């Protein structure tokens, strides 16, 4: 149980285009989902916390208009990188938790984004 | 906010030896402390966790200890094997639904 999927696993795009990444909880309902960014050999940097049916809470320094997050259902959250630039190239990972009664976060496999 | 420090950043041990990774946290309100293992290019996998009402937890070769007074917790891996080689992250959280504050990671290499 507690499986989280992410799609796509990798994507290459041109500067100026938008990229959408999906995060799904496959066998549980995820009240809360988290989006992270990870640079090589570094820790996970939280970008935003997403609760189903409400607006995401962004961490300081993360542009909400650039990284659009939607959590439309209890099993799906999406991250859209708008007008992508090469500096947006990174490894993006989502995680999901069962809800207010469960502390554990289960991570998706990550999406590697390369912006040319 | 919470600040989690993790040491060492790299650790090499001989196969069969023990490995210990230590983390400290700053916020006494944190009450949940998970440990994740991440292999290169893969997702972090939960390997063990501990809650603030427990001082120690063990799962086969892996154990975690928590000292609330000193605000530190440690991961202990005994009888290390080459497949234990990975990056390990500790984290602290205020509990369900709240964000994790991650440590900076420890790259563990087990030498056959």
Topology:
The complex is a heterodimer of chains A (116) and B (112).
Chain A: E1 4-7, E2 10-13, E3 19-25, E4 32-38, E5 44-51, E6 57-58, E7 67-73, E8 76-81, E9 90-99, E10 102-107, E11 111-115
Parallel strand pairs in A: 2-11
Antiparallel strand pairs in A: 1-3, 3-8, 4-5, 4-9, 5-6, 7-8, 9-10, 9-11
Chain B: E1 4-7, E2 10-14, E3 19-25, E4 32-38, E5 45-51, E6 56-59, E7 62-67, E8 72-77, E9 86-93, E10 100-102, E11 106-111
Parallel strand pairs in B: 2-11
Antiparallel strand pairs in B: 1-3, 3-8, 4-5, 4-9, 6-7, 7-8, 9-10, 9-11
Number of helices of chain B: 0
**Gross morphology of chain A:** globular
Structural class of chain A: mainly beta
N-to-C order of helices and strands of chain A: EEEEEEEEEEE
Structural class given helices, strands, pairing of chain B? mainly beta
Helix content of chain A: under 10%
Largest interface: A-B, 26 and 24 residues
What letter string, H or E per element, gives the SSE order of chain B?
A: EEEEEEEEEEE
Descriptors:
heterodimer; A: 116 residues; 7-stranded mixed sheet; 4-stranded antiparallel sheet; 57% strand; B: 112 residues; 6-stranded mixed sheet
How would you describe the overall organization of this protein?
The complex is a heterodimer of chains A (116) and B (112). Chain A is mainly β and 116 residues long. Chain A is built from no helices and eleven strands. Chain A has strands at residues 4-7, 10-13, 19-25, 32-38, 44-51, 57-58, 67-73, 76-81, 90-99, 102-107, 111-115. In chain A, the strands form two sheets. In chain A, strands 2, 4, 5, 6, 9, 10 and 11 form a seven-stranded mixed β-sheet that branches. The radius of gyration of chain A is 13 Å and the shape is globular. Chain A starts with a strand and ends with a strand. Chain B is mainly beta and 112 residues long. Chain B has no helices and eleven strands. At the A-B interface, strand 5, strand 9 and strand 10 of A face strand 4 and strand 5 of B.
